[in-house]
Amino acid sequence: MKKIIVATQNKGKVKEINDILEGLPVCVQTMSEAGIDIDVEENGTTFEANAIIKAEAISKLTDALVIADDSGLEIDYLNKEPGVYSARYLGKDTSYEIKNQIILDRLKDVPKAQRTARFVCAMALAEAGRETVTTYGTIEGYIGDHAEGENGFGYDPIFFVEELGTSTANISLEAKNEISHRAKAMRALLEKIKERLNG
Ligand code: ITT
């Protein structure tokens, strides 16, 4: 059975990606399950460049298929910050409770129409000796005036989606995987993985 390594240290992402890969005749492993322990420097200036950097760095160490994503939150009022710096924004070790509160403070009294934001995700599929392929997904929303919900991870508690009437931290994993940026990019990648498995 073909092995796929999900090249991320983020447990929230692993859950979401595993959920979408379920049912595929592949053995999905995290980096630690695959015995790979490297920290790849994400020094690209775009989500796509960083996803490729991560996936290709890991695929040099294995014959397996490697999936990596780079994702983040773009807040229009903050000139699309934190963007590609989403994980490092306001300090890598600062808790999301604090980061989210600081963002809410920065947007205090900003009207809803100017609070637009989106999650963005670029995914890369790398395999030794093959060309790396990428996909992309986004979800539009806005920064709420408070944090809400216990599910998801990162900026989910402050990212509200009009159609949901709540934040992406206040919905189930299954519901998030119907609509999220990562799910959209992942489903597009799924088609490319299937082609790879059949070819
Ligand atoms: P890896 O590099 O190991 O995959 P990471 O958390 O550092 O893990 P990224 O570099 O892609 O991942 O940073 C993405 C950050 O953007 C992530 O840490 C969150 O802060 C935010 N983010 C991305 N997708 C999100 C989502 O679905 N919900 C909430 N926050 C998200």
Structure keywords:
199 residues; alpha+beta; 8-stranded mixed sheet; 5 helices; 8 strands; globular; binds inosine 5'-triphosphate
Order of helices and strands: EHEHEEHEEEEHH
Low-confidence regions: none
Hetero ligands? inosine 5'-triphosphate
Give the strand tally. Answer: 8
Strand proportion, as a percent range, falls in 25-35%
Q: Average pLDDT value?
A: 95
What does the radius of gyration come to? 17 Å
How many helices in DSSP terms? Answer: 5
Q: Please outline the major beta sheet.
A: 8 strands, mixed
Q: What does this protein structure show overall?
A:
The chain is of the alpha+beta class. The protein is 30% helix and 25% strand. It has helices at residues 11-21, 47-59, 96-106, 173-179, 181-198, and strands at 2-6, 26-30, 65-75, 81-82, 116-126, 133-143, 159-161, 166-167. Strands 1, 2, 3, 4, 5, 6, 7 and 8 form an eight-stranded mixed sheet that branches. α1 packs across α5 (181-198) and α4 (173-179) packs across α5.
Summarize the structure.
This protein has helices spanning 11-21, 47-59, 96-106, 173-179, 181-198; strands spanning 2-6, 26-30, 65-75, 81-82, 116-126, 133-143, 159-161, 166-167. It is an alpha+beta fold and 199 residues long.
Q: Mind sketching the topology for me?
A:
Layout: E1 2-6, H1 11-21, E2 26-30, H2 47-59, E3 65-75, E4 81-82, H3 96-106, E5 116-126, E6 133-143, E7 159-161, E8 166-167, H4 173-179, H5 181-198
Parallel strand pairs: 1-2, 1-3
Antiparallel strand pairs: 3-4, 3-5, 5-6, 6-7, 7-8
Bound molecules: inosine 5'-triphosphate.
Inosine 5'-triphosphate is lined by residues 8-10, 13, 42, 69-73, 86-87, 119, 152-156, 180, 182.
